[in-house]
């Protein structure tokens, strides 16, 4: 089966809201005059972002999920995406399962695949996702202010545990494996925080590393309350200090870290209840541009490693 047959069989679908989808030199879509377009691109590389033996359904799911998580961090509603897929061989079983993973997640958010490219080479997946957000309501990294609370959704450390155990030839707990391979972006929470969060980011490289992006963009510092970090239950197999290190530095979380004025605490807790998602208050923004950490009101030495970096 050739390149265009693969596209038509596994990826081409009738678009519902785009002006023009797959099949021409460009896709066309028309946003509302009241909205901005949020655009994000992520590349996943075999052996770096997923293990070669990973279920192709999960590879497809995660490839799109990491992009949707970026949109969620801006408070944007997912709308469209393009897919550039480089394959080492014409393995139709792999392609079919991969496509099913992508389509299953895209249908959850009513996203439309509107174009891309298919090439031969080492397995690499690049997705560009587009979302809509009302003008002036996109949540940036640069809005954190001294006195703001620091919050995080869900729990932390499970993907790091799964990765560690896989590398040590141990089967990880089911929940941790799911968090690593099939993250669920916090889209609804991100949208509901448009008028509440002063700054927001998704946790892809690690809590500390991504929080530091907010601090740098906002020119502020923070105090982290280590005893309030929402450690994933699976981390109970580790020594407390190791569990905290996984929660602070482990990547692939795709939870949201955001800041908000303390007056918003009741709303945020109500939002957590409605979404049935844990949202934890884990720190405070400070004027002094450094990261301080305490545990049970005592100084805490943070790990030197802050998170994942490619170079």
Helix and strand topology:
Elements: H1 3-11, E1 35-45, H2 56-73, E2 77-87, H3 92-108, E3 112-120, E4 124-134, E5 149-153, H4 158-167, H5 174-181, H6 187-192, E6 199-202, H7 207-218, E7 221-225, H8 240-249, E8 256-260, H9 265-275, E9 279-286, E10 291-295, E11 298-299
Helix pairs in contact: 2-3, 4-5
Question: Keywords for this structure?
Answer:
seven-stranded mixed β-sheet; globular; 2 domains
The H-and-E topology, N to C, reads as HEHEHEEEHHHEHEHEHEEE
> How many strand elements?
11
* Strands side by side in the biggest sheet: 6-8-5-9-7-10-11
Determine the number of helices (DSSP H or I, runs of at least 4 residues): 9
> By CATH's scheme, which homologous superfamily of the largest domain applies?
PurM-like C-terminal domain
Quick check: average pLDDT?
A: 92
Query: What is the CATH class of the largest domain?
Result: Alpha Beta
Biggest sheet details: 7 strands, mixed
CATH topology of the largest domain: Phosphoribosyl-aminoimidazole Synthetase, Chain A, domain 2
What overall form do the CA principal axes indicate?
A: globular
Computed structural class: alpha+beta
Count of discrete structural domains: 2
Span between N and C termini? 37 Å
Low-confidence runs of at least 5 consecutive residues: none
Strand content: 15-25%
Percent helix range: 25-40%
C-alpha Rg, in Å? 20 Å
Q: What is the CATH architecture term of the largest domain?
A: Alpha-Beta Complex
């Amino acid at each position: 089966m050739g390149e265009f047959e693969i596209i038509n069989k596994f990826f081409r679908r009738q678009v519902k809201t785009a002006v023009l989808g797959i099949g021409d030199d460009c896709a066309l879509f028309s946003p509302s005059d009241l909205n901005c377009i949020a655009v994000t691109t992520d590349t996943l590389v075999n052996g770096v972002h997923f293990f070669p033996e990973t279920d192709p359904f999960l590879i497809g799911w995660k490839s799109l999920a990491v992009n949707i998580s970026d949109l969620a961090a801006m408070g944007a509603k997912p709308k469209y995406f393009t897919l550039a897929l480089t394959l080492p061989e014409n393995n139709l079983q792999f392609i079919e399962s991969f496509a099913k993973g992508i389509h299953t997640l895209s249908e959850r958010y009513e996203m439309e695949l509107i174009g891309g490219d298919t090439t031969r080479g080492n397995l690499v997946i690049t997705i560009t996702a587009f979302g809509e957000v009302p003008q002036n309501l996109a949540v940036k990294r640069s809005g954190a202010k001294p006195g703001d609370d620091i919050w995080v959704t869900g729990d932390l450390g499970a993907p790091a545990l799964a990765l560690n155990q896989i590398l040590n030839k141990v089967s990880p707990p089911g929940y941790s494996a799911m968090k690593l391979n099939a993250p669920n972006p916090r889209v609804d929470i991100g949208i509901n925080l448009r008028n509440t969060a002063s700054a927001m980011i998704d946790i892809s490289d690690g809590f500390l590393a991504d929080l530091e992006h907010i601090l740098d963009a906002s020119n502020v510092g923070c105090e982290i309350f280590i005893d309030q970090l929402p450690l994933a239950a699976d981390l109970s197999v580790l020594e407390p200090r190791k569990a905290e290190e996984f929660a602070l530095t482990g990547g692939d979380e795709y939870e949201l870290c955001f800041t908000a004025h303390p007056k918003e605490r009741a709303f945020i807790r109500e939002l957590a209840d409605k979404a049935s998602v844990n949202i934890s208050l884990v720190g405070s923004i400070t004027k002094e541009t450094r990261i301080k950490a305490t545990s049970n009101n005592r100084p805490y030495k943070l790990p030197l490693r802050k998170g994942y970096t490619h170079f």
